[in-house]
Structures are given as structure tokens and as C-alpha cells.
Design goal:
Number of helices: 0
Pfam families: F5_F8_type_C_2
Helix content: under 10%
Radius of gyration: 23 Å
CATH architecture of the largest domain: Sandwich
Structural class: mainly beta
Number of strands: 18
CATH topology of the largest domain: Jelly Rolls
Subunit structure: Homotrimer.
CATH class of the largest domain: Mainly Beta
CATH superfamily of the largest domain: Galactose-binding domain-like
Order of helices and strands: EEEEEEEEEEEEEEEEEE
Shape: elongated
Function: Acts as a defensive agent. Recognizes blood group fucosylated oligosaccharides including A, B, H and Lewis B-type antigens. Does not recognize Lewis A antigen and has low affinity for monovalent haptens.
Strand content: 35-45%
Protein name: Fucolectin tachylectin-4 pentraxin-1 domain-containing protein
Organism: Mastacembelus armatus
Distance between the termini: 36 Å
Length: 301
């Protein structure tokens, strides 16, 4: 029996992932809603592929004024959902404030903490005397978001090595063990200028995400201020390549996922560098995930 708990995202906080290769699996699927205001505002209008934002043109859904109105689409299969985009009416820009998205494998949304999987996507507007109107709801799915970690087949090096047990390869051994004493973390010499770590992926990829696991037993603050750089150049040991992301902080022993600023980046070399003097770089795992050859990824926030 499934545990009945809910997964929801505030629409005001939602980061929408859109790519050239993502499939809108909601298109023309079965949609229902809590009520219908008139004959033209039925639930199917939100999955007809039309992003027109004028309700006057009868291309948007519309409920009556009621408590907690909702709209739901049945995707007719369970998908790993990588992004959702909602187009709302231009007449009332604040109408969706406070709305929630629920995702689940049954009509009662169920929680999955590792990935968001589901068959049913529900938009719900909590409160009394509310009206829900949606012009289009697009649900994106792509298998490549769960592609293999290509760093595992790479070759790693770093600016210096503290000991034989802390060489650069420890950060691409497939283990997220975050305790330095376990021997699964890389470590540069202490207090050097601009310490860096690099993995050579052996070929150029379109990099979509990089995951970094920080040291768990101590010194988590050391990684603050680090930069992830990606490119095809080895000038300055690869540290002159464009910046993918800035690491402000990763909690002790935690793994954080970084999406490259502005979208995907092409490169063979992935560097982690901490600019400054008297710095020490420790990495317990670096994972690199890529798009298939010939695809392009853009992140829209």
C-alpha cells in the first residue's frame, strides 16, 4: 500500500526546465477539473497545445468561484518529470498566486524524494472564493536527465596531493563517502594559492549538471567560494575555461547539484578551483551528467 503524502511545488518558486528535446507528455491527454464555468472553459483547453493567453478566445480553462479549485491531467503512464511550464491568463496576472503543483502515481499524490515521478499532475489553488484558469500546462519528460555519470570514465588530476591516499582519482571513484579518514576523498596540499582539481572526460560532451559531494567529517566551509569551470582548453590547467557555476556553500557531507549558468556547456575538461591564497581543496565526489550527442539544453528560471 502506498504511503499517502504529498509532493507540491509553489508556482512562485518553480524552476522550469525546458529543452529542445524534452517531450510534452501532457499534450492532448485526459484532463479534468473541480468545476467548469460555462461551456467553453473545460479542462481539455489546458492540454491542447495552444499557449494563447486570452480567456476571451475560449482557449483557457475556467472553474466557478469555489473553495480550493483544482485541475488535473492523467499522463496515462508514469514519467520522470524534469520540468513543468504553465501559461496563465493575461487578464488576471495574479490569479495563480499561491497555487500548488501536485505530482503522484495515483490521484492521491505520493512522495518520491530522489526524483519526481508521476502519472497525475494536479494544479490546486488553496483558499475560499477562488477561480482557477489555465491556458496551457506542459509537462516535460526526458530520459537523458538520468544519463550515466561520465566522470567515472575520466582521468582526474589536481594542483597538488596531500598524500598517496588523497589523489585526484578519489573524487571520481563512484563513492559519495564523505569522511576523509575512509580514504575516498581527494585532497590538495594545505594552504596553497588557487588549488584546483580537474577531470578529463576523454571527449567533448554537452554538460547539463555537475554534482559535488563535500567533506563530511570537518572543514565543510573550505569549499565555499569554489568555481566549476568547463571547456576544451588546458590554458592555465583548464582554469581559464568558462565558469559553469559558483559554489557558495555545501553542507558537510552533502551532495549538491549545479546547473550551469545560462544552460548547458560544451567541454572535455571539468575543473573545480578555489581562487585565493592559503586555500585547501577537498572533494569526496564529482559527478558529471551530459545530454546525448546532438541535443541542446537551456535552463529557464
Amino acid at each position: 500500500m502506498e504511503t499517502k503524502s504529498r509532493t507540491f511545488l509553489s508556482l512562485m518558486m518553480l524552476s522550469t526546465l525546458i529543452t529542445d528535446v524534452l517531450q510534452n507528455v501532457a499534450l492532448n491527454k485526459i484532463a479534468v477539473q473541480s468545476s467548469q464555468n460555462g461551456t467553453l472553459g473545460d479542462a481539455r483547453k489546458a492540454v491542447d497545445g495552444n499557449r494563447d493567453v486570452s480567456c476571451l478566445k475560449a482557449v483557457c480553462t475556467l472553474t466557478v468561484e469555489e473553495a480550493d479549485p483544482w485541475w488535473r491531467v492523467d499522463l496515462q503512464a508514469v514519467y520522470r518529470i524534469t520540468g513543468i511550464m504553465i501559461t496563465h491568463r493575461n487578464e488576471y496576472v495574479d490569479m495563480l498566486n499561491g497555487a500548488e503543483i501536485w505530482i503522484g502515481k495515483s490521484r492521491e499524490p505520493t512522495e518520491n524524494v530522489s526524483v519526481i515521478e508521476g502519472r497525475y499532475v494536479t494544479v490546486r489553488l488553496p483558499g475560499s472564493k477562488k477561480v482557477l484558469s489555465l491556458c496551457e500546462v506542459e509537462v516535460f519528460h526526458s530520459d537523458y536527465a538520468y544519463s550515466p555519470n561520465v566522470a567515472l570514465k575520466g582521468h582526474a588530476t589536481q594542483s597538488s596531493t596531500l598524500s598517496a591516499f588523497t589523489d585526484a582519482s578519489k573524487a571520481i571513484d563512484g563513492r559519495r563517502n564523505s569522511f576523509y579518514s575512509s580514504g575516498f576523498c581527494s585532497h590538495t596540499a594545505e594552504n596553497e594559492a588557487d588549488p584546483w582539481w580537474r577531470v578529463d572526460l576523454q571527449q567533448t560532451y554537452t554538460v547539463t549538471t555537475v554534482k559535488v559531494t563535500n567533506r563530511g567529517d570537518c572543514c565543510a566551509e573550505r569549499l565555499g567560494g569554489a568555481e566549476i569551470r568547463i571547456g576544451n582548453s588546458l590554458d592555465n590547467n583548464g582554469n581559464n575555461n568558462p565558469r559553469c557555476a559558483f559554489i557558495s556553500h555545501i553542507r558537510a557531507g552533502k551532495t549538491k547539484t549545479f546547473l550551469c549558468e545560462g544552460g548547458n556547456m560544451e567541454g572535455r575538461f571539468v575543473n573545480v578551483i578555489i581562487p585565493g591564497t592559503r586555500k585547501t581543496l577537498t572533494l569526496c565526489e564529482v559527478e558529471v551528467y551530459v545530454a546525448p550527442e546532438g541535443t541542446a539544453l537551456t535552463l529557464c528560471l
